[in-house]
TrEMBL record:
The keyword Signal applies. Residues 42-54 have a biased composition (Acidic residues). It holds the Pfam family TPR_19. It comes from Thiobacillus denitrificans (strain ATCC 25259 / T1). TPR repeats lie at residues 308-341. Residues 30-41 have a biased composition (Low complexity). It comes from the Bacteria. Residues 30-64 are annotated as: Disordered. This is Tetratricopeptide repeat protein. InterPro entries: TPR-like_helical_dom_sf, TPR_rpt.
Length: 592
């Protein structure tokens, strides 16, 4: 369990209590005083010089806090909660903080209890603590917002409505935008839509209210209602980009062409709408209209110079189109524009440099990736570049010394270590690396799947089957796990009926996957159903002319006496994949 990173709210608490009596006295320190952050004590001199208004506000806020004596019992609970959180015992920390919140009715303690309950994924505890927080600090906008969000997520719309209505009176525009973001997470989308309509009725001239209706309607599948609300929002505030972007997203669910047409019309009237133009350019990329997309990105970089988001998008498009010089120039410029996520830019600069055959430059950029989603892929590419240069020990040492930021990244690092060994076909070493990783993460589906593949190479079919069956338990809709187990049973055993059942399940999950079609065809061949085998294999080869599929299809043709057709198929595949092991083994076996 990940330890809870607690804020130092109680740093002064232990020091105060260490000098106190075992029983409270009339002048004993109160919770309100003991809970003040240490930083406030350090800044006492500065506070004396602050304007009178600020001092009065602080005094008023402190006076409103409950005057709870700091008893030994309270102190012990605080220490238990702190230590438990630091050591990863989140359940103990959460229940202790919640008990403290009930006992003290202090808004800061209740806020902490709510935060820890959310971290512990205890919605009931989070809701109770947030209620205490909101009751203890009725002026806290954050407490009221958190309470409303928790009530919505639990589907308690009747309780949420008065809280939302009060919030919307304070900051209606901001409130409706927050509400729109929360609506998509609600289970009863029809009830959510009715709630938003009732709340929006109090704000008929507010485009954000119509935006929230549109978001709720879209979540409920009522797209015509959503588009009508967005048209009303546009009439209230012509050229409003958030509404236009949602309009385009709703249209794109059924038709990219309709979304493009809408954005084209909108941009003709509002040419300076940067976010819509950026979405338009990205939609053009999705529609494979690269020439038009490049023209739009060129306009964006001209109209919005030194904009990191624009230059990054243009650089990635150039990389996708294979214009490496333009990609390198645009991504390098992006780094000069103070981007929010420089790690991402360094990662794609590394990708660009690799494609330009500049290994040293690529490694330099990958090394600059220090966090985020690209951290582990960057280290994996660094290691791969070292291995390509013959520095295998350095490559393995780099990955072994890298610590991920979470369990998912650490699992990916173990996979990267195994991948380094794959080129040298060191299957025993791959198996050992993955087995060590599974000691740390015994239920990591990706490690189990990869070890199963290594076990197959070592003829350890018992481990392959056990690992893949465990993957199926952990990920019941993993088509590739069913496929790998079914194919192995069909290819390496006589358990053909069981293999076909597994492969039928895989095909139901991914009916157009060419490798699953290939496996089904091979199982039919092994069962003696040559005509059905040929049908599946021809479908697979049409989708993907892979050499292993060619090997299987050719063998079925050969078995049916169509040897000229089989030979032509194999020769064509050998021209593009001359070293494929499965294809070469098939040819050797049938020639014998």
């Amino acid at each position: 369990m990940t330890p809870l990173k607690l804020l130092p709210l109680y740093a002064a608490l232990a020091l105060t209590a260490a000098c106190g009596q075992l029983a409270p006295r009339p002048d004993a320190p109160t919770l309100a005083k003991a809970q003040a952050p240490a930083a406030e004590a350090d800044a006492a001199d500065e506070a004396e010089a602050a304007p009178d208004a600020e001092a009065e506000a602080r005094a008023k806020a402190e006076a409103a806090l409950p005057r709870q004596p700091l008893t030994p019992e309270l102190l012990l609970k605080f220490l238990v909660a702190e230590v438990a959180g630091q050591r990863g015992a989140i359940g103990i920390a959460q229940t202790t903080y919640l008990d403290l919140a009930r006992q003290t009715r202090d808004p800061r303690v209740a806020q902490r209890a709510a935060e820890v309950s959310a971290f512990a994924r205890d919605p009931a505890g989070a809701l109770e603590a947030t209620r205490l927080w909101a009751e203890a600090d009725k002026d806290s906008l954050r407490a009221q917002q958190t309470l409303a969000a928790l009530l919505l997520s639990e589907g308690r719309l009747a309780e949420a409505e008065p809280v939302l209505r009060a919030l919307l009176q304070e900051k209606p525009a901001e409130g409706f935008l927050h509400l729109a973001a929360a609506i998509g997470k609600m289970r009863d989308s029809a009830a959510a839509l009715e709630l938003v309509r009732r709340l929006a009725a109090d704000h008929p001239q507010l485009p954000e209210a119509q935006f929230a209706i549109a978001q709720a309607a879209a979540s409920a599948g009522q797209f015509d209602t959503a588009l009508a609300a967005l048209q009303k929002a546009d009439s209230l505030r012509p050229g409003w980009e958030p509404g236009a972007l949602l309009h385009a997203q709703i249209l794109a669910r059924t038709s990219n062409a309709a979304a493009l047409a809408f954005m084209r019309t909108f941009l003709a009237e509002h040419g300076d709408a940067r976010e819509v133009r950026l979405a338009y350019a990205r939609t053009l990329v999705s529609a494979n209209q690269f020439t038009e997309a490049r023209a739009e990105f060129a306009r964006l970089t001209r109209d919005f110079p030194r904009n990191a988001e624009v230059s990054l998008a243009a650089g990635l498009l150039s990389l996708q189109l294979g214009d490496l010089d333009a990609a390198h120039a645009l991504l390098t410029q992006t780094l000069e524009y103070n981007p929010r996520d420089p790690d991402t830019i360094h990662y794609y600069l590394g990708q660009t440099a690799e494609q330009m055959k500049r290994a040293d430059a690529a490694a330099m950029h990958y090394e600059q990736v220090r966090s985020g989603n690209h951290f582990v892929p960057a280290r994996a590419r660094q290691a791969a570049l070292l291995a390509q240069a013959g520095k295998h020990e350095e490559a393995r040492a780099l990955l072994a010394a890298t610590q991920g930021q979470n369990d998912a990244q650490n699992v990916r690092l173990i996979q990267a270590q195994a991948e380094l060994l794959r080129e040298s076909k060191a299957y025993a070493a791959i198996f050992d690396v993955l087995s060590e990783g599974l000691k740390r993460y015994p239920d990591a589906p990706d490690l189990l799947y990869d070890r199963a593949m290594a076990a197959e190479k070592l003829d350890r079919l018992d481990i392959l089957e056990a690992d893949l069956r465990r993957v199926i338990v952990l990920r019941p809709n993993d088509a590739q796990a069913y496929n790998a187990l079914g194919y192995t049973l069909a290819d390496r055993t006589e358990r053909l009926a069981e293999a076909i059942e597994l492969l039928d399940k895989a095909l139901a999950l991914a009916p157009e996957d060419p490798f699953i079609l290939d496996s089904v065809g091979w199982a039919q061949y092994r069962s003696g159903n040559l005509a059905r085998a040929q049908q599946y294999l021809e479908r697979a080869y049409k989708v993907r002319p892979d050499p292993e599929i060619a090997a299987h299809l050719g063998e079925v043709l050969w078995a049916q006496g169509q040897r000229d057709e089989a030979g032509k198929l194999w020769q064509a595949s050998l021209q593009t994949h001359p070293g494929n092991e499965v294809l070469l083994e098939t040819l050797r076996r049938l020639k014998r």
